[in-house]
Amino acid sequence: MTQREVRFPDEFLWGTSTSAYQIEGGGTNTDWSRYEVAEGTHCVEPCGPACDSWNRYEEDLDLIVELGLNSFRLSVEWSRIEPQQGVIDHEAIAHYRAVLEACHARSILPVVTLHHFTLPLWVADVGGFENPDIAAWMGAYAKVVGESLGSLIGIACTVNEPNIVALMGYLIGAFPPAQSDWLRFSNVNTAMRACHVAMRDALRATPGDYPIGMPLSMNEYEALPGGEDLVESIRHEMEDEYLRSVGDDDYLGVQCYTKIVIGPDGRIAHPEGELTEMGYLFWPQSVEYTLRRAASMVSIPIIMTENGIGTDDDEQRIRYLTGALAGLRNVLDDDIDVRGYFQWSLLDNFEWTFGYRPKFGIVAVDRSTFARTPKPSAQWYAEATKNFTTSND
Ligand code: BGC
What we know:
Elements (H helix, E strand, L loop, with lengths): L12 E5 L2 H4 L7 H6 L16 H14 L4 E5 L2 H4 L8 H16 L3 E7 L5 H4 L9 H16 L5 E5 L2 H9 L11 H23 L7 E6 L2 E4 L4 H16 L7 E6 L2 E5 L2 E2 L18 H12 L4 E6 L6 H20 L4 E7 L18 E3 L6 E3 L1 H12 L6
Parallel strand pairs: 1-2, 1-11, 2-3, 3-4, 4-5, 5-7, 6-8, 7-10, 10-11
Antiparallel strand pairs: 8-9, 12-13
Helix pairs in contact: 7-9, 8-9, 11-12, 12-13
Bound molecules: beta-D-glucopyranose.
């Protein structure tokens, strides 16, 4: 399909990233809500009310304003908008209209993800990403979103980390549907690319001139002796096949957290070095690494749509973000076309199988009152973004 005229924001985007299921609460019509309470899964607790952002979104947006950020990445939830196949919930759409209008009222550019990990039960029950109709269903859903919310979207993300959905759901077996099979993993990656194209083209066919792209999970990899071939095959499935397919998109979203160390038998679970709450290597250098790698393979603008650290130690978060922004500085100084950076995450939220233990937020959330309390890292991030000059400034 021919590309439409696309308008990118003039300013460099500084934001934080979230997803509907992880902060809204009450998302009970999804594969995840069922998985969290099923026997024998890796889940430590159910999502439940999350951060109650369904009701407290204005408070969240006010925090963004206080921090002086100009954008916010959030997602809309397919299971709420289309709770059953072909049945559109107009109240859910009205809610998301109100959220997006509340962003604009505060001069916050909304970066809207259409699919962030969760599937409506009606989709999951008929094979999810392995159903041959999945791209058509996601395209139809994207058309509804484009028609009803398109005029309010600042930037659109189609499928969040399609490669992680495939990896965790079909190879590692830690996300629904908890399968572990290389061929299925690879087939789901192929299906994901078709879903992305169907959604992108459906959005392009509805009004609006906002950029549309896919947020891809990327990592720095280190091969220990004997692990080189495995790194190559993992990279091929997880990154290269995707990066080769996005040339017609308006931009690429890059999301990174760490460096993964691979030996002859697979990922090293506890690599040597400083580790985070997730057991990841503390590796802010991955920002520079992944941005450079992405830029070497695509010739469209890049937005870092997620980067951050799960930690109870806010000083460690500030150290991580310091390193991350230094890497961003280096790539911008080399004229790599990066248009924005989104820290994950605004709030301490539901971290999937790990529940509420990992703390990715620059704002703490009291689990009983939902009161929000900015951490020192929030103020640090506000200052750092203010003092960071980009070529757009
Ligand atoms: C996902 C988020 C998740 C974050 C931290 C990303 O892979 O998009 O949903 O919370 O990483 O693990």
